[in-house]
Design a protein that fits this description.
Elements (H helix, E strand, L loop, with lengths): L16 E4 L2 E4 L5 E4 H16 L1 H6 L1 H17 L38 E10 L5 E9 L8 E7 L5 E8 L10 E8 L7 E4 L15 E9 L8 E9 L5 E11 L5 E8 L4 E2 L4 E8 L8 E10 L5
Antiparallel strand pairs: 1-2, 2-3, 4-5, 5-8, 6-7, 6-9, 10-11, 11-15, 12-13, 12-14, 12-16
Helix pairs in contact: 1-3
Length: about 300
């Protein structure tokens, strides 16, 4: 049985050798190894000369020249890539093209993240704690976390206490504002309070359900152990169920200074679309006589557990 020898690329060792236009071409590295037609011609001459010894002597010189020519061709071919751009292989090749470029005028600038904690008022309780209530306003171009951080400074400008507080909403949009209360427990003596927080944009957020608040009224204490109390109705007008509804109320005096802040969760966990429910908020701290009050709420879309 005649031995079958595999075709191997002497350049890269690949078996992917294909006959193209009389040439063996490696389709991995593109090296052309030898001319198939020339090899077949050489084999024909060799067989013929073996049958006719007399002709072998006469054509020995010619055979030597043919063998030498083929050897030179085979030695010069490896390492030279096949011409893929020519039409000899019949394989269409796309011509290289330069990428389309755009300058910095086509790049939208990064949006500004900004917020400020202003109009801070200290509300002292009866056990030495201080609630610093202020308005946190989004002054940037992106949503921000409603997170306020403050520092209490002594007469030398040294920090004697730091604290932080959060608004009831998960985020506020540009231009929106929300009251935040920051509790400093057993507050030391201080001279000034300073906002030191750095605003941060949330990595993920979803719109809160739209609620309508109506029928607001505030009652005054009827005895020394009673509180100012706010009543109202909250209605779900979002088009879907809402859950974990929280209401916060901030009271202002005639000079527009914050004198009270309180909040409460709605007694009903899930509020259906079009459904309403009453709420009540008690003020345990009210430093003055209120002239007006504002109401803020938070909620999330109801997602039933699977």
């Amino acid at each position: 049985m005649k031995e079958i020898k595999p075709l191997l690329c002497r350049q890269c060792g690949s078996h992917d050798m294909r006959l193209e236009e009389g040439r063996y071409v490696c389709h991995y590295c593109g090296t052309v190894h030898y001319e198939a037609g020339a090899k077949k011609f050489l084999d024909t001459i060799t067989v013929s000369l073996l049958k006719n010894k007399k002709a072998a002597a006469a054509t020995a010189g010619t055979l030597f020249l043919v063998i030498a020519g083929i050897a030179v061709s085979m030695m010069s071919e490896p390492g030279r890539p096949a011409d893929r751009t020519s039409g000899s292989t019949g394989i269409p090749v796309e011509k290289p093209a330069n990428p389309i470029e755009a300058g910095k005028d086509a790049i939208e600038p990064e949006k500004k993240v900004g917020a400020e904690f202003i109009d801070i008022s200290p509300l002292h309780d009866s056990v030495g704690n201080i609630y610093f209530v202020g308005i946190y306003k989004n002054t940037g171009e992106t949503p921000v976390y409603p997170r306020a951080e403050i520092a209490l400074l002594n007469a030398k400008g040294e920090k004697v206490a730091v604290a932080k507080g959060y608004g009831i909403r998960g985020y506020i949009l540009p231009g929106e504002k929300i009251p935040i209360s920051v509790l400093v427990m057993r507050a030391p003596l201080y001279k000034t309070v300073k906002s030191i927080g750095i605003p941060e944009a949330p990595s993920y957020y979803q719109p809160r359900p739209k609620l309508a608040i109506s029928k607001l009224r505030m009652t005054s204490p009827v005895h020394r152990f009673d509180y100012y109390r706010v009543y109202g109705i909250v209605k779900n007008v979002s088009g879907e169920k809402a859950q974990h509804i929280q209401v916060a109320v901030t009271a202002f005096d005639a000079s527009d200074k914050i004198i009270g802040h309180a909040g409460n969760f709605l007694g009903q966990t899930v509020l259906g679309n079009g459904e309403d429910a009453p709420f009540t908020v008690d003020f345990h701290l009210m430093k003055g006589r209120p002239a007006r009050f504002s109401v803020e709420y938070s909620a999330s879309v109801y997602k039933p557990s699977k």
